[in-house]
Design brief:
The chain has 12 helices and 4 strands, in the order H-H-H-H-H-H-E-E-H-H-H-H-H-E-E-H. With 363 residues, the chain is mainly alpha-helical. Its main location: membrane.
């Protein structure tokens, strides 16, 4: 996934170098004045859009991790995976998007050879972690709800799975760090010398990698997730529970709705980008005059997935919503957030814990 490469397709077509996955772009040589992203109004809009995504992503995902670390009964297996998802989104917002924005605006890589390899790798790594984590969450809930398995994953096992997701994601993203080139290019007819960071694939391998990533990063995981949540929904819909367990069933339904909506948002945000990128790899749209602008807009839509999740948690989950409100009101930090939405301070909990027992799980 060469985000920064394709965002600068207009610039790279000015010289005889390959642009990432584009093998036939040398025949098209537009001038810089033809690039609509050079217009002041467009640049201001892009700066605003990327800055808003970065700000919302940093604040929202940091709050999610903060709450799971701070509140004891938020430390459930599902919430550990949600924290891992938030960490991956934080990585995109803090490490990748600022570099992508600057490269898009300047059409020149200003950050040196090391970052040329690390930034695209970091973004691909985080996206792989996100989709793998969403898949793990769906499979775990499928295992527990559909098959009535009371024994959920313990903390140690969940951490091992999280470590495996990062390891697998690191392997899948590896080619984007390896097949990369940082170089200086001379553009004689406008007397310009610029630094370029682009993909450099062995002949014919760019399309193979792109199609493989489309399958591994989007099609196959979403198929697994969709199957799992359809089965879960059918199970919960047809389940008749004793009155004593009705509250737990309602919480399961709400949590399942929330997590399924997270997946839907991820799929919708990334679909235009994946389709556009595959078309680019097949050399179907690189000659479009507004290629760079269209690509950048699709990239912005995809990056919206990095801040939407905390909004969904706050909208659909009482525990997250109350925790967010307490943080922004600068209220006293509670020891736990309870399923009924109430807050208990450490001193109060110390007085009643012996009578009530441990708090119920948050998600």
């Amino acid at each position: 996934m060469g985000q920064s490469d394709q965002a600068n397709a207009t610039e790279d077509t000015l010289h005889d170098g390959d642009l990432g996955n584009a093998s036939s772009i040398n025949t098209y040589r537009p001038a810089f004045v033809d690039d609509v992203t050079k217009h002041l109004g467009v640049q201001i809009s892009l700066i605003f859009a990327y800055s808003l995504i970065i700000l919302l992503g940093l604040v929202g995902n940091t709050l999610v991790i903060y709450m799971i670390v701070l509140y004891r009964n938020m430390r459930t297996v599902t919430n550990y995976f949600i924290a891992n998802l938030a960490l991956a989104d934080l990585m995109v917002d803090s490490v990748c998007l600022p570099f992508t924005l600057v490269y898009t605006l300047l059409d020149e890589w200003k950050f040196g050879a090391v970052m040329c390899h690390m930034v695209p790798y970091g973004q691909a790594l985080s996206i792989h972690v996100s989709i793998l984590t969403l898949t793990v969450i769906a499979v775990e809930r499928y295992r527990c709800i559909v098959f009535h398995l009371g024994q959920r994953l313990n903390r140690c096992t969940s951490f091992i799975i999280i470590g495996l997701t990062w390891t697998l994601a690191a392997v899948l993203a590896g080619p984007l760090a390896i097949f990369r080139e940082y170089r200086y290019e001379e553009i004689p007819y406008i007397d310009l010398r610029i630094a370029v960071c682009s993909e450099k694939w062995p002949s014919g391998t760019n399309v193979v990698y792109s199609v493989s990533m489309l399958l591994l990063q989007y099609v196959v995981p979403l198929a697994i997730i969709s199957y799992a949540y359809v089965c879960i929904w059918m199970k919960l819909k047809n389940h008749v529970s004793p009155s004593t367990r009705s509250d737990g069933l309602v919480r399961r339904k709400k949590t399942t709705k929330m997590l399924a909506l997270v997946v839907v948002v991820f799929a919708v945000c990334w679909l235009p980008f994946h389709v556009f990128q595959l078309a680019s790899d097949l050399d179907l749209i690189l000659k479009f005059k507004e290629y760079k602008l269209i690509y950048t807009l699709f990239h912005i839509v995809a990056m919206c997935s990095t801040f939407v999740n905390p909004l969904l948690y706050g909208w659909m989950n009482q525990n997250y919503r109350n925790g967010f409100l307490m943080f922004f009101r600068c209220e006293h930090k509670p020891d736990s957030i309870y399923p009924d939405g109430s807050f208990r301070t450490r001193s109060l909990r110390g007085m009643i814990v012996a009578h009530e027992g441990p708090p119920a799980a948050a998600v």
